[in-house]
Write a structure and sequence with these properties.
- By secondary structure, the chain is an alpha/beta fold.
- The chain is about 25% helix and about 25% strand.
- The protein is built from 11 helices and 17 strands.
- The strands form 4 sheets. Strands 3, 4, 5, 8, 9, 16 and 17 form a 7-stranded mixed β-sheet that branches.
- Helix 3 packs across helix 4.
- The longest helix has 13 residues.
Length: about 375
């Protein structure tokens, strides 16, 4: 089969790999029809996540058709069109029983740190991802779900990570009616977090970024106020002025490890690899939220030291909530929002590339070329 293969920082290519096989009675093999390049894939692409091994196939957002199932699988059958959450989860451990699927304790040798994720380094279990023609799906009775007949494929693929992650970012903010919500980052997750904040009852939503085309998308898709942080002297002071000098009620960090805005933070993270991520957006969120406010973190960071302003967190009495998204927990409500026309996830898609051109897709997305917001990858002509 053809698959995207990691060859080192900023080097990916399509190679022939052996088609995955059933390894356990609960496995399924899914023929991928559509995948996506996620902003967090770029952290792997840039060499910022530990134990990302040469030869790995990325891709934790994908949908497809069940090709084969193990003898124990009962909930899906060959020929079913399925969407697969990025969490690999057993469905029965302490965490899965509480719908904390991202914390599953049975799918990752590093389970004390993180659950299992498709195509996201050996830190997250070492599973190959879906930027390929076929992918092995463990615990096939737990993760994959049939795509409803009324749902379009491009909406379904965005419901495997980006959309529910943004939704959970808003949910973790415990937004109350009328709250002022500030979202740092106008990438896909930030756009969905801003859109979802309205669904939670926000009275005002402000999105921060430095790319004008992404801010335009935030105005168009999420109906948010926007600020380009490069066009104000001090983004924290600017936000304080906009909120009667109290600060926002809720701040959402939807940026993560590769935040711009501080030269020294970027150098120590991206160049010297001294941190698990440039915490610029997170520190701005800590400074911009009001005392006793809430900071929600859905941007991805590596499991290393980061220079976070924790003294300010304690002194301001802040609530910090963070998590990898437990995707399936949010599907029932998100399905209803999509079906009712409240939410159209595929509206943020700007680029579609064939699998054999995925290296160019990564380059375009990583370099923010051609006003790229979200790229989908197709395994056959589309």
């Amino acid at each position: 089969m053809q698959a995207m293969v990691y060859r080192g920082p900023c080097r990916v290519r399509v190679e022939n790999k052996e088609k995955p096989a059933i390894e356990h009675p609960n496995d399924a093999i899914v023929r991928v029809t559509c995948a996506a390049i996620c902003g967090s894939d770029l952290h792997l692409y840039h060499g910022l996540m530990p134990d990302t091994r040469v030869g790995m196939t990325f891709g934790h957002e994908f949908v497809g058709v069940v090709d084969e199932v193990g003898p124990s699988v009962q909930n899906v059958r060959p020929g079913d069109r399925v969407m697969v959450p990025f969490n690999i989860c057993c469905g029965s451990c302490y965490f899965c029983a509480r719908e904390l699927y991202s914390c599953c304790h049975n799918v990752n040798p590093n389970a004390s740190a993180v659950g299992g994720i498709y195509g996201y380094s050996h830190t997250c279990g070492g599973y190959d991802g879906g930027q390929a023609e076929y992918v092995r799906v463990p615990f096939a009775d737990v993760g994959p779900t049939a795509i409803p007949d009324w749902m379009e494929e491009e909406d379904a693929v965005l419901l495997t990570d980006a959309c529910p992650t943004g939704y959970q970012g808003a949910e973790m903010g415990s937004i109350k009616e009328g709250d002022v919500v500030v979202v740092f980052g106008a990438g896909p997750v930030g756009l969905f977090a801003a859109k979802s904040s309205w669904l939670m009852g926000a009275g005002r939503v402000i999105v921060i970024d430095h790319l004008d085309y992404r801010l335009e998308k935030a105005r168009e898709f999420a109906h948010a106020e926007t600020i380009n942080f490069t066009q104000v002297d001090d983004i924290v002071l600017h936000l304080k002025k906009l909120t009667d000098y109290l600060g926002a009620d809720v701040c959402i960090d939807a940026v993560g490890a590769e935040a711009d805005g501080s030269f020294w933070q970027v150098v120590s993270n991206n160049k010297l690899k001294l941190q698990g991520g440039s915490p610029v957006a997170l520190n701005w969120a800590i400074d911009s939220v009001r005392k006793a406010g809430t900071v929600s973190v859905v941007g991805a960071y590596g499991p290393l030291f980061s220079a976070v302003k924790f003294g300010d967190v304690m002194n301001k009495g802040l609530t910090i909530r963070s998590a990898q998204c437990s995707v399936k927990r949010h599907w029932p409500r998100l399905f209803q929002h999509v079906k009712n026309g409240v939410l159209k996830p595929s509206a943020i898609v700007t680029h579609r590339v064939p699998l054999n051109e995925i290296a160019e897709g990564y380059h375009i997305m990583a370099s923010k070329l051609d006003e790229c917001v979200k790229s989908l990858v197709y395994t056959s002509p589309h």
